[in-house]
Amino acid sequence: MAEKSQQKSEESFVRQRRGPQRQTPKQKNDIYVNKQSDFKFQLERAQKLLDSGWNEVFIHGLGAAINRAVNLALQLEQEGHGSIQISAQTSSTQVVDDFRPLDEEQESYSETRTKSSIKIKVYKICTDESGVLTKT
């Protein structure tokens, strides 16, 4: 019964999702993936960064975009034919939803949710004079 009353009250609010706060400023070699991201464009962008002198690219995904971020990194690794490696770091990220009332008599409120996130380092590797693989 409590669920119905809570659901009914939530219907009288409009939810606005805030974007997650970044821990560090965005760099040129950071690629943030979401569900609406153009996969082909982001793949081309990452490849251009690696081809233009960047030794590493960081791909970030949050929630439902994690699968897309992983696929992007794996595609780059596959197209690198052994010259690209990846490493992933997972974490949890706090996001905030603001609820604005449709009725002026009610007050706004916010809720915090925890979402899974991933940061994938895509980096070039090369061989030294003896043929041993090393990071660039």
UniProtKB/TrEMBL annotation:
Keyword annotations: Cytoplasm, Nucleus, rRNA processing, tRNA processing
GO molecular function: nucleic acid binding; ribonuclease P activity
Gene3D superfamilies referenced in this protein's UniProt entry, alphabetically: Alba-like domain (3.30.110.20)
Cellular compartments annotated: Cytoplasmic granule; Nucleus, Nucleolus
Spans annotated as Disordered: 1-31
Main subcellular localisation: cytoplasm
Gene Ontology cellular component list: nucleolar ribonuclease P complex; ribonuclease MRP complex
Entries under SUPFAM superfamilies matching the protein: AlbA-like
Biased composition, class Basic and acidic residues, residue ranges: 1-14
Top-level lineage group: Eukaryota
GO biological process, one term: rRNA processing
Function comment: Component of ribonuclease P, a ribonucleoprotein complex that generates mature tRNA molecules by cleaving their 5'-ends. Also a component of the MRP ribonuclease complex, which cleaves pre-rRNA sequences.
Identification of the protein by name: Ribonuclease P protein subunit p20
Species the sequence originates in: Paramuricea clavata
